[in-house]
């Protein structure tokens, strides 16, 4: 009888260790997911900022090109006269 009790205790111990291992693994995965989620949010924010900066720079370049005679369309008839 004593031997059977020891087997049950050993099985319970193994089961408890397995549950503990799984709980720790789940907690680690939750932290990883939280970290990845925070990183995604940061990248989205940076992406929006860069898009905005690109629009400003694009407008600036467009304004410079329109103000420069090098990029103006030329009227060939008026140059011939």
UniProtKB/TrEMBL annotation:
UniProt-listed Pfam families: DUF2205 (PF10224)
Primary residence: cytoplasm
Coiled coil: 19-53
Bilayer topology term: Peripheral membrane protein
Keywords: Coiled coil, Cytoplasm, Golgi apparatus, Membrane
GO cellular component: cytosol; Golgi membrane; trans-Golgi network
Compartment(s): Cytoplasm, Cytosol; Golgi apparatus membrane; Golgi apparatus, trans-Golgi network
Keyword Membrane among record annotations: yes
Binding partners and assembly: Homodimer. Interacts with ARL1, ARL2 and ARL3. Directly interacts with FEZ1 and UVRAG. The interaction with UVRAG is reduced by amino acid starvation, but the complex is stabilized in the presence of FEZ1. Interacts with NRBF2.
Family: Belongs to the SCOC family.
Role of this protein: Positive regulator of amino acid starvation-induced autophagy.
Protein name according to UniProt: Short coiled-coil protein
Organism of this sequence: Phodopus roborovskii (Roborovski's desert hamster)
């Amino acid at each position: 009888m004593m031997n059977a009790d020891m087997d049950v205790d050993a099985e319970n111990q193994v089961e408890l260790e397995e549950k503990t291992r799984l709980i720790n693994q789940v907690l680690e995965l939750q932290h990883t997911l939280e970290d990845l989620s925070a990183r995604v949010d940061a990248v989205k924010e940076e992406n929006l900022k860069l898009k905005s900066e690109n629009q400003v720079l694009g407008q600036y370049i467009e304004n410079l090109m329109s103000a420069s005679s090098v990029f103006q369309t030329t009227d060939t008839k008026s140059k011939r006269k």
